[in-house]
Write a structure and sequence with these properties.
The complex is a heterodimer.
Chain A lengths: L4 E3 L2 E4 L5 E6 L6 E8 L3 E9 L2 E5 L6 E5 L5 E5 L8 E8 L11 E2 L3 E5 L1
Parallel strand pairs in A: 2-11
Antiparallel strand pairs in A: 1-3, 3-8, 4-5, 4-9, 5-6, 7-8, 9-10, 9-11
Chain B lengths: L4 E3 L2 E5 L4 E6 L6 E7 L6 E6 L5 E4 L2 E5 L5 E6 L8 E8 L8 E2 L3 E6 L1
Parallel strand pairs in B: 2-11
Antiparallel strand pairs in B: 1-3, 3-8, 4-5, 4-9, 6-7, 7-8, 9-10, 9-11
The chains are: A mainly beta, B mainly beta.
């Protein structure tokens, strides 16, 4: 158990809908990262937050947004869903926003999103 | 998005055999990480490497940070059935952000 929690575990919805995925980082970690894992694109970095502020953006669509709240949990919002958004969405956390020793990313169990 | 090249893509081995896999990139990284992912689960960190040429072990696992900083290698000795899974390398550049760039994965299956 990495200490990172994600809810829900599974989510099934229809095209055009909007969903919210939730992540709670490990106790003490201030930075949260979101990744998408699909069959054709593999694991791709979406966005990083540190202490409530956006730090880095990756291949995140404009239909997707995220935020980190004062209690440090984070939510990833996916709107106008398309079939191609079906994927596993992972959250990871670290203490510091910077890379380096003792600041490795630990991943949550993921949310499997299925868009029908 | 960018993905690092991992080889082999998949491998079937017998219990007790040693396994080697590698990961290559067209650009340099300051940090290399190796993760294992079981079906339906999140990636679990196995080994982290921070210096070119570094060789680090974690039990039966040994990983190396390539001298060119564009590659990394993972070896598993005396494989056991629970080694089954997908192994991912990930590279990271130090700086203001620490996003990971993942490899394409190596699927390992171990037969008794």
């Amino acid at each position: 158990d990495s200490g990172v929690t994600q809810t829900p575990k599974h989510l099934i919805t229809a095209t055009g809908q909007r969903v919210t995925l939730r992540c709670s980082p490990r106790s003490g970690d201030l930075s949260v990262y979101w990744y998408q894992q699909s069959l054709d694109q593999g694991l791709q970095f979406l966005i990083q937050y540190y202490n409530g502020e956006e730090r880095a953006k990756g291949n995140i669509l404009e239909r997707f947004s995220a935020q980190q709240f004062p209690d440090l949990h984070s939510e990833l919002n996916l709107s106008s869903l398309e079939l191609g958004d079906s994927a596993l969405y992972f959250c990871a956390s670290t203490l510091s926003p910077y890379s380096g020793s003792q600041n490795e990313q630990f991943f949550g169990p993921g949310t499997r999103l299925t868009v029908l | 998005g960018q993905q690092l090249n991992q080889s082999p893509q998949s491998m079937f081995i017998q219990e007790g055999e040693d396994v080697s896999m590698n990961c290559t990139s067209s650009s340099i990284f300051n940090t290399w990480l190796w993760y294992k992912q079981d079906p339906g689960e999140g990636p679990v960190l196995l080994i982290a490497l921070y210096k070119a040429g570094e060789l680090t072990s974690n039990g039966r696992l040994t990983a190396q940070f390539g001298i060119t900083r564009k590659d990394s290698f993972l070896n598993i000795s005396a494989s056991i059935p629970s080694d089954v899974g997908i192994y991912f390398c990930a590279g990271m550049l130090t700086g203001t952000a620490s996003k990971l760039t993942f490899g394409t994965g190596t699927r390992l299956q171990v037969t008794l």
